Every structure is written in structure tokens, then in C-alpha cells.
UniProtKB/TrEMBL annotation:
Name recorded for this polypeptide: Threonine synthase
Lyase as UniProt keyword: yes
Any one GO BP annotation for this protein: L-serine catabolic process
UniProt organism field: Acidisarcina polymorpha
Cofactors: pyridoxal 5'-phosphate
Length: 431
């Protein structure tokens, strides 16, 4: 290979030079970035990575950008947390949380994909960028476009959560609310990208965008001490993230940075939008589109672009997929916050509830090293918890009032002392 990276068709293998293209002109399958792995053997080493920045750009030599590219905004390198209290609650032992609820700059894993996509938008000379989004992508594009000097158009379904709308507009992006669901928004975006020659991160820049997701996988391996986990639980919207974590692990094995190991991939969806988990459960790669109806709006893609690849990756890895109800999602958000101090959005509620179910159904063995991917921040979907916590009455600034307040509180059983230490009372928290 004469170049460090280029595009290749995922199905027929046809090669393409680097261009804003997303699908093969022969077979219409999606394009993917491939690298000169011989060159990468020299540049992508444990030592060079350790000497790199504390961001996803420490893996720059396996990302589709020129060698001397200087990313204007650091993203990624989020904590991998041990989760012993959540583990105890759900019958696990070696459970970890990859916490992209604190990914910078906009508090979701989408900051990673946007970093790579916008780098390529610059390379291709676009002056205007955009995306079709279920929320987090909108926030990430709007924020990162500012420091790179792009004009920005963002298309979202009209019923998006208010926090995600505000978190897009505040950066000065032009927000277009489209009457319809994500799939309608996405179709319009493809037409706009073509008509106006704009760089749409998840349309004509999609192969580059998707590479950003690999860094979740690289980080998991590096943070486990250059080891692969036994299992990974990943939320699925378009189905890209789960396939790219798998690609990352394969690349690390190929380059000799980790020992080879069969990692099982588990996909998580909301029952109200579960085209991929439904296919996996049916033993099929054929995705039947659905009309989304769930509070997990960030995952509400009824016709997922990478759905067949996600379903295949799950099956080939020996994993499984599950979907959970909106009630389970909310309760899992609370559970993760109460046990591990991580406040996630509805997508993280999906992942947490699915992780719990996988243990309960014996699909994951308690002794396995399992990583649950938390991909977004709870402050963006506070509506999901509406009515869950009553507004406490006020007290006067007097000790007597406070003592009375505490007494009433204990009677109602809301205060559970052991929450602080992470122990359970009689195997159950009182809510
Ligand atoms: C977009 C998104 C995902 C899923 O990403 P895909 O690559 O489209 O499957 C998961 N979690 C959150 C919070 C997201 O915004
Ligand atoms: Zn092809």
C-alpha cells in the first residue's frame, strides 16, 4: 500500500482513494478505512502510545489523518472504572464501566467520531459541515466545528430532548428540526450533502467518522493493562460503535499489542427501537426496520446503517443482544448512579439494564472480565427521571426543623445509610 490509509468496500473489497464517499459504486456496501499495517507496526507501539497525549489522539497513527495532524480539541481517554457495587447488585464480579459520560468536549462518545470526521472535512476542503443526529452527534459537531472554523447545519427529529437542542444551539450552529423520525432526517441529510457539497459527518464522511469509535476499544485494552476483556456490552443505534470496538481489538492483536482472545460482543437496545437485537435473537443478519418509540432517543434509529454488520459481529463473536423496556431503562439509570456515582443518559440506562439481564440469564459468567460501555451523560436526559424524586419541602434555618426533617425521612425509609459504603440492606435498597 502506497498510502498510510485508504477506503475499501466492506463487501466486495474494491479500493477507493480518500474521498468524501460512503458507499461502493459497484455493490452499494459501506466503505471502511484500511491501513498500511506494516507501517503501523513501526509507529503504533505501546511505548509511542504511552508517550502520546491523554486523549484519543494517542492512537493517531491508526486514525485516518496525516501523520502531522494536530487535533484542535482533545476528546476521549475517559476512565475505565471498576464497578464492584453495581457488580454485587447484579451478580457479577469483574465488571468495569467505560465511562464516556465524561467524554470531552460534549459528554458523549460522539466527540470521538466527530474529531476524526471534522479532521477529514478540513482535508477535503469543506467550509460547511453538518449531520443528522439523535442528539449527541449534534452537540459534538456543533461544539467542535467552532474551533475549526466551519459553518454548521444540524438536522434533528423535531421531538428531541430540550437539553440536546440547547446544547447544539449554544455553539451557534444552525439547527433544523425536521418533522419526522431519525430515518427521515437522515434521508434528507444525504440529499443535502450532495446538493450543497457539504461535509456531513455521518453521511459522506461516514467511513472516517466511524474510525473514531475504535478508540473506545483501544482505550479499554490499554486501561486493562494491554489485555482484552472477555465480554463487552455496547449500546447500538446505527450499529457502528460495536463493530468498530471489534475492529480495534483485531488491529491490536494483528500488531501484537495484546494477546489474541475471543472477545464476546453483546449489543444493547431499547425494546421500543430494537431492529438489531431482534435480528440477533432470530439468528439473522437481516434487519427489519422499525418505527422507534422509546425514551432512549439517542439509540432510536429504526433502520440502522450498520445493523447487518453489528448483528454479524455479535454472532461471530459468540455474543448476544438484548433489549429492555423504558421502565427498566429509568431504573437502571438510577441504579448506576446509586451504586457507582455515574449519571448516564437513557442510552447508558439501556446498557446497564441489558448488562444486568445478561448476568441474570447466565449469558455472561460472573468471573469473566466484562466491560459495560456507558456512552452519554445523564444531564442531557433529565426528563427521563421526571417525577422520580419529589421536591423536598423547605425548612427554616433551625436545628429543630432539621431534626424533625431527619426523623420524618427515616420513617419514610428513604435514607439508606449503607448506600454510602456500597453495602446492601437485606439484599435490597429501599427507594
Ligand atoms: C450514537 C450513540 C450510540 C450508538 O452509536 P452507533 O455507533 O450509532 O451504534 C450509543 N450511545 C450514545 C449515547 C449515542 O449517542
Ligand atoms: Zn463493493
Amino acid at each position: 500500500m502506497a498510502v498510510a490509509y485508504e477506503l475499501r468496500c466492506r463487501d466486495c473489497g474494491k479500493r477507493f482513494k480518500n474521498d468524501p464517499l460512503s458507499s461502493c459504486d459497484e455493490c452499494f456496501s459501506p466503505l471502511e478505512v484500511v491501513y498500511d499495517m506494516d507501517a503501523a507496526k513501526r509507529t503504533f507501539t505501546r511505548e509511542s502510545i504511552a508517550g502520546g497525549p491523554a486523549s484519543m489522539w494517542r492512537y493517531q497513527s491508526l486514525l485516518p489523518v496525516p501523520e502531522d495532524y494536530a487535533a484542535p480539541t482533545p476528546a476521549g481517554w475517559t476512565p475505565l472504572l471498576e464497578a464492584p457495587r453495581l457488580a454485587k447488585r447484579i451478580g457479577a464480579k469483574n465488571l468495569f464501566i467505560k465511562n464516556d459520560a465524561v467524554c470531552l468536549p460534549t459528554l458523549s462518545f460522539k466527540d470521538r467520531v466527530v474529531s476524526v470526521a471534522l479532521a477529514n472535512a478540513k482535508i477535503f476542503g469543506f467550509d460547511t459541515v453538518g449531520c443528522s443526529s439523535t442528539g449527541n452527534l449534534a452537540n459534538a459537531v456543533a461544539a467542535q466545528a467552532v474551533r475549526m472554523g466551519f459553518k454548521t447545519y444540524i438536522l434533528v427529529p423535531a421531538d428531541l430532548e430540550p437539553a440536546k437542542i440547547l446544547n447544539t444551539q449554544v455553539y451557534g450552529a444552525t439547527l433544523v428540526r425536521v418533522e419526522g423520525n431519525y430515518d427521515h432526517v437522515n434521508r434528507l441529510s444525504s440529499q443535502i450533502a450532495e446538493r450543497f457539497h457539504w461535509g456531513f459527518v455521518n453521511v459522506n464522511l461516514r467511513p472516517y467518522y466511524a474510525e473514531g469509535s475504535k478508540t473506545v476499544g483501544y482505550e479499554i485494552a490499554e486501561q486493562l493493562g494491554w489485555r482484552l476483556p472477555d465480554n463487552v456490552v455496547v449500546p447500538m443505534a446505527g450499529g457502528s460503535l460495536i463493530t468498530k470496538i471489534r475492529k480495534a481489538f483485531k488491529e491490536l492483536v494483528e500488531l501484537g499489542l495484546v494477546a489474541e482472545k475471543q472477545v464476546r460482543f453483546f449489543g444493547a437496545q431499547a425494546t421500543g427501537c430494537s431492529p438489531i437485537s431482534t435480528a440477533v435473537k432470530a439468528g439473522s443478519d437481516i434487519i427489519e426496520p422499525q418505527r422507534p418509540n422509546t425514551i432512549a432517543r439517542s439509540l432510536a434509529i429504526g433502520n440502522p446503517a450498520d445493523g447487518p454488520y453489528a448483528a454479524r459481529a455479535i454472532r461471530d463473536s459468540g455474543g448476544w443482544a438484548e433489549d429492555v423496556s423504558d421502565v427498566e431503562i429509568v431504573s437502571a439509570i438510577q441504579e448506576l448512579a446509586e451504586t457507582e456515582g455515574v449519571f448516564t443518559e437513557t442510552a447508558g440506562g439501556v446498557t446497564t439494564a441489558v448488562t444486568a439481564r445478561l448476568y441474570a440469564h447466565g449469558r455472561i459468567s460472573p468471573d469473566d472480565v466484562t466491560v459495560s460501555c456507558i456512552t452519554g451523560n445523564g444531564l442531557k436526559t433529565t426528563d427521563a427521571l421526571a417525577g422520580k424524586y419529589e421536591a423536598e419541602r423547605t425548612i427554616r434555618p433551625r436545628m429543630a426543623d432539621f431534626e424533625e426533617f431527619v426523623a420524618q425521612h427515616e420513617v419514610r425509609g428513604i435514607v439508606v445509610d449503607d448506600m454510602v459504603s456500597g453495602e446492601l440492606v437485606g439484599g435490597e435498597y429501599v427507594r
